[in-house]
Write a structure and sequence with these properties.
Strand order of the largest sheet: 5-6-7-3-8-9
Strand content: 15-25%
Number of domains: 1
CATH superfamily: P-loop containing nucleotide triphosphate hydrolases
Mean pLDDT: 89
Shape: globular
Largest sheet: 6 strands, mixed
Low-confidence stretches: none
C-alpha cells in the first residue's frame, strides 16, 4: 500500500510565457492507479500543465508533488517513476525494434530480460528484428509505449498516443493500458482528442480551456454540468463556444 493518498498533487499552479498566461491557478489530484483524461482544444493549457507534471517546465506559482516529492529536491528519483510517450516519437529508422528498445534500456541500466518482458507486454515480439521504418504506425506507437514502460513507471503521461491510428491499432493500445491498470496499478494522465478514448479508458475527465479547469469528474458527473448534453463535445461548445478539436 502507498503511504500517500495521491500519486500526483497539483496545487494552485500558474505558468506564463511573456504576456500569455498558459495555466491560471490550476489544482487537481490523481490517486494511485487512477486513469485521468485531460481534454481541451489547442491552446487550452494542457501541454503546459503536463510538462510541469513531467518536470520539463517549472511553475511560476504553486507546487506539484509526485508521490509526495518535489522536482526541485527529488529529480533523479522522480525520473525513475515516470514514463512518457508523445504523439509522434522519433526513432532511428535504421535500428531494429530490438536495438531501439535495448538502447533505451541501457539508460536505465536494464538487462535484455526486461526488454523481452516489455516486447511481450506490448505484443510486438514478432517485430523485434524489423527496422523501425518498416513498422506500421500502430507498431511504432506500441514501440514508443514500450520504451515508456521499460523502467516500470508508476505514472504514465501519454500525449495523444493513438492519433492517426486505425480503430484496431487504437484498441490494441487501449488493451495494453488497461492491463497495466489491472495488473500493475499504474496511474495515467492522457491527453486526447478522441472522446471515445477518454470515456473507455479513464476513471475521471478534466476539461481545460484558456488555462482554467472548466469541469472535472466521471463522465456522468461532467455531463451533469449541463442540461441534456449527450456528449463531451456538446458540453464543451456550450461552455466555451469552441469544439474540443480546435
Amino acid at each position: 500500500m502507498s503511504d500517500f493518498e495521491y500519486i500526483v498533487e497539483v496545487r494552485k499552479v500558474k505558468k506564463s510565457f511573456k504576456e500569455v498566461q498558459a495555466v491560471k491557478g490550476v489544482s487537481l489530484n490523481i490517486k494511485p492507479g487512477e486513469f485521468l483524461a485531460l481534454l481541451g482544444p489547442n491552446g487550452a493549457g494542457k501541454t503546459t500543465l503536463v510538462e510541469m507534471i513531467e518536470g520539463i517546465q517549472h511553475p511560476d506559482e504553486g507546487e506539484i508533488l509526485i508521490a509526495g516529492k518535489q522536482w526541485k529536491h527529488h529529480q533523479h528519483e522522480l525520473h525513475q517513476m515516470i514514463g512518457l510517450s508523445l504523439q509522434e516519437t522519433r526513432f532511428i529508422d535504421k535500428l531494429t525494434a530490438w536495438e531501439t528498445m535495448r538502447l533505451f534500456a541501457s539508460f536505465y541500466k536494464l538487462n535484455s530480460y526486461r526488454v523481452d518482458e516489455v516486447f511481450k507486454l506490448i505484443a510486438l515480439e514478432d517485430k523485434k528484428n524489423a527496422y523501425v521504418d518498416n513498422l506500421s504506425g500502430g507498431q511504432r506507437q506500441r514501440l514508443a509505449l514500450g520504451v515508456a514502460l521499460l523502467n516500470q513507471p508508476r505514472i504514465l503521461l501519454l500525449d495523444e498516443p493513438t492519433t492517426g491510428l486505425d480503430p484496431n491499432a487504437r484498441r490494441e493500445i487501449w488493451n495494453i493500458l488497461l492491463d497495466l491498470k489491472k495488473n500493475h496499478n499504474t496511474s495515467l494522465i492522457l491527453t486526447s482528442h478522441y472522446m471515445e478514448e477518454a470515456e473507455y479508458l479513464c476513471d475521471r475527465i478534466v476539461i481545460m480551456d484558456q488555462g482554467n479547469i472548466l469541469g472535472e469528474g466521471t463522465l456522468q458527473e461532467i455531463l451533469a454540468l449541463g442540461s441534456g448534453y449527450r456528449s463531451l463535445d456538446e458540453l464543451f461548445i456550450s461552455l466555451t463556444g469552441r469544439h474540443l478539436y480546435e
